[in-house]
Design a protein that fits this description.
Oligomer: single chain
Distance between the termini: 115 Å
Largest sheet: 2 strands, antiparallel
Length: 533
């Protein structure tokens, strides 16, 4: 080999080495740029569709926050602009002509389904989508009648600095219940009323079939339909939309950026899942899961384009991790039905096993054969889906033992307090010793606190490994409410009934109370009384 050829090889190797080093630097710079972009330290490259360019230019001046949020979204990177979401068709009741385009203000799940079909179908089947059913529930009676008034009323004294001539008795329901659960979105009518989905009777395409009602929609000087201010804005999870769809995608995926990072974070669920009756956010924060999240949040790849448990992160679970997100055991499949992994429902006075039918309704049938014929998805199958999530961090024995403790706790609550309390209240009602209106007698408040506040806290605490909520904020308060208030109040009603000539009714209720209190789990009270005597 000549010196010249040797030098040529050296030069070639040097050049290749420099190219290789340059490629490494280039790849690393791309990765750094990607990480900076995902972390929000530099803007994403965006593609403004031609049909939305004018929208972006105009709203960047009038509503810069909206445009900034959209610029940071996956939609913007993929060329999904304003019209792809807001575009409406002729015949839609909320459509109006705006600078050459027919658009609608409210984007509904039906609109989102044009691209997100599977997500729409999963969500529509979920309990989340049915959250608006509270409009006819006991909870809503509290807000509409007891806290407020279903009819406006006159103020009783002046309000300095304000001219108030009428009090909106529905304000508590509008601002409280319906902002989480959702309301019937309504348009204003030319006769001063409200127009909802019930009046419009939309078909499968979302367009109204009652055209005489459409003709009554009140519009502003630009032809834009006026939404009723008591129902909009509203991002309630079970919102009842004018097109017949239920829900609001932006309840979790905040508009207009629809940030996956935000949807992954437990704080995102805290708008609704907190407080005295369903403190899941507080329970999570107390649990070891919440502690781990706060400690290791920076390692959880929350900004990643992919967020699969066991692949992209393992440090801690969030609400989304357990209830919705994909993981390595299920091929990374996400669900938009949070109930698909829940084996008990702890919402009602007595917890129910989450066997569900083809319409995803919880089965209440008690006959085993009839029950089996109705089941489409079993509670055990749901539990196994959750256990698959748990198994990324916990051994099979650990997970099985946790569920053993959880089941025992829920059954204890059901049998010692939930079912007996329900039976006592039913006996009082059946014997006519309570009036028909709810919450007009002290015992009705007592029972509501027992199951709706303390009972839920106890059961939710057990379900999410938060011992303080399970015990001190839960079963301790359940027991106090049952023994110190519910049973004595029921006996007082019996005594009052007997004193007023209702001996048979009093005896019937007393028999129910005595049978319950004679059970072994309540024997400690009799033992204490015997000691005193």
């Amino acid at each position: 080999m000549t010196l010249q050829s040797l030098n040529a090889k050296r030069i070639l190797i040097a050049v290749l080495g420099v190219l290789f080093l340059a490629s490494l630097v280039f790849v690393q710079s791309l990765e750094v740029a990607r990480k900076r972009t995902e972390a929000g330290l530099r803007p994403h490259p965006i593609a403004v569709p031609a049909n939305s360019a004018a929208c972006v230019d105009c709203h960047a001046k009038s509503n810069p926050g909206i445009v900034d949020h959209w610029r940071g979204s996956t939609h913007a990177r993929k060329g999904v602009g304003c019209l792809e979401c807001h575009q409406a068709e002729a015949g839609e009741v909320d459509a109006f002509h705006h600078y050459g385009q027919d658009i609608a203000t409210v984007v509904t799940p039906l609109d989102c389904s044009r691209c997100h079909t599977v997500e729409f179908e999963e969500f529509t089947r979920s309990h989340h989508a049915k959250a608006g059913n509270i409009l006819h529930s006991l909870d809503n009676r509290l807000a509409e009648t007891i806290e407020g008034s279903r009819v406006p009323f006159a103020p009783h004294s002046p309000t300095p600095g304000r001219s108030v001539d009428q009090v909106n008795g529905m304000a508590s329901a509008n601002t409280g219940c319906q902002q989480c659960h959702g309301s019937k979105v309504a348009l204003q009518s030319t006769d001063g009323g409200m127009i909802t989905v019930d009046d419009l009777a939309p078909g499968p395409d979302g367009k109204p079939t009652k055209l005489d009602v459409v003709a009554k929609v009140l519009k502003d000087e630009n032809g834009r339909p006026r939404y009723h201010p008591t129902t909009w804005p509203n991002t309630g999870m079970g919102r009842l939309n004018l097109d017949g769809s239920r829900g609001s995608c932006s309840a979790c995926h905040s508009r207009h950026d629809f940030s996956p990072r935000r949807a992954h974070r437990p704080e995102n669920c805290g708008k609704c899942h907190l407080g005295p009756d369903h403190p899941q956010k507080e329970i999570y924060e107390e649990s070891k899961h919440g502690v781990a999240y706060r400690d290791l949040e920076h390692e959880m790849n929350l900004d990643g384009a992919s967020w699969v448990l066991g692949v992209d992160y393992t440090q801690a679970p969030t609400c989304a991790t357990c209830h919705m997100s994909g993981h390595s055991r299920n091929g990374g499949k996400i669900t938009h039905d949070p109930g698909m992994r829940i084996s008990w429902t702890n919402r009602p006075p007595v917890s129910l096993v989450m066997d569900t039918d083809a319409e995803h309704r919880v089965i209440t049938e008690t006959d085993p054969a009839k029950r089996q014929s109705l089941v489409a998805d079993t509670a055990e199958a749901k539990r196994q889906r959750m256990m698959d999530v748990c198994s990324h961090c916990h051994t099979p024995d650990y997970v099985t033992a946790f569920y053993h403790q959880y089941d025992d706790f829920v059954v204890l609550y059901n049998e010692k307090f939930g079912k007996p309390g329900r039976a006592i209240m039913a006996a009082l009602q059946d014997q006519g010793l309570l009036s028909k209106p709810q919450f007009d007698e002290p015992i009705e408040w007592t029972w509501f606190y027992l199951w709706h506040h303390e009972g839920r806290r106890a059961r939710h605490g057990a379900s999410m490994m938060a011992p303080d909520y399970a015990h001190w904020h839960g079963m301790y308060e359940v027991a106090e409410r049952f023994y110190v208030e519910l049973v004595p109040e029921a006996r007082a009603i019996v005594a009052e009934a007997r004193a007023h000539g209702k001996a048979d009714q009093a005896a019937a209720v007393e028999a129910v109370i005595d049978e319950i209190m004679a059970r072994p789990e309540h024997a400690w009270q009799a033992e204490g009384q015997a000691t005193l005597e």
